[in-house]
Write a structure and sequence with these properties.
The chain is elongated. The N and C termini lie far apart (62 Å). The protein is built from four helices and ten strands. The strands form two sheets. Strands 3-4-5-6-10-9-8-7 form an eight-stranded antiparallel sheet. By secondary structure, it is an alpha+beta fold.
Length: 233
């Protein structure tokens, strides 16, 4: 149950219309299944900047790109940010959030028409897409929050899926693109990781408390040694 990116030098890649047609294996210049270092190079960040969300039974990582703040009149790009998700180093999901100002006044049908021009005829299923975000708390504990959004339109084949939605909490649109095979593997791994975390939580709490007690005793002993000799009654 887990789910929750490029202008300047990279802007050309985002704004250039693709030469392919109805290729659901990629969003613009990003190919699903690409390895993490290659995607990091595309968005001009270091691979080490990827955030590790889960480590077992598979490595789940995220990498985010956000559009730089520029004058609205100079913006020609509709994307506000992109979140890339990786399963064992392979890009399995892309979450696109479109810029609110660049989509202001546009209707859902406007978005469907624009996406359909590149990816073919859309279906309009009665379905929801789960958007999840994971926050790492102090001590490494994970706080996972989920929310579902109604799918406005979907473009898919046997291997890939594009899902257009509108955020219920704000007047902007988003697009979730994923590999069905990799996404299924990632979701199964995430469920198992969450199960293991919950199972081991009591023991981790005991170990954390023990570590804090030991650190406190060491601190007290250090203070004792520093204060004992010069103490004058």
């Amino acid at each position: 149950s887990f789910r929750n990116v490029v202008i300047s030098v990279f802007g050309a890649a985002l704004s250039t219309p693709p030469t392919y047609s109805q290729d659901l294996s990629r969003y613009r210049e990003f190919q699903l299944g690409t390895n993490l270092p290659a995607v990091a190079k595309q968005i001009r960040v270091k691979p080490s900047e990827a955030k590790t969300i889960h480590e077992r039974p598979a490595m789940i990582q995220e990498m985010e790109w956000q559009a730089p703040l520029t004058d609205f009149s100079q913006r020609g790009e509709s994307v506000g940010n992109i979140l890339f998700r990786f399963y064992n180093g392979e890009l399995y999901q892309i979450v696109v959030a479109y810029d609110r100002e660049r989509t202001e006044g546009m209707t859902a049908e406007d978005l469907v028409e624009a996406v359909s021009a590149k990816y073919g005829i859309a279906t309009k299923p009665v379905a929801e897409i789960i958007l999840s975000s994971t926050h790492l708390l102090n001590g490494g504990e994970k706080l996972i929050s989920d929310r579902s959004e109604k799918v406005i339109a979907r473009w898919e084949d046997s291997q890939y899926s594009f899902n257009l939605f509108q955020y219920s909490s704000e007047a902007t649109f988003g697009l979730v693109v994923y590999s069905k095979r990799l996404d299924a593997l990632a979701q199964a791994a995430i469920v198992e990781s969450v199960r293991l975390d919950k199972q081991e939580a009591p023991q981790r709490e005991i170990e954390s408390r023990k570590k804090k007690d030991e650190e406190n005793r060491a601190r007290q002993e250090k203070a004792r040694q520093a204060n004992k000799a010069p103490f004058r009654p």
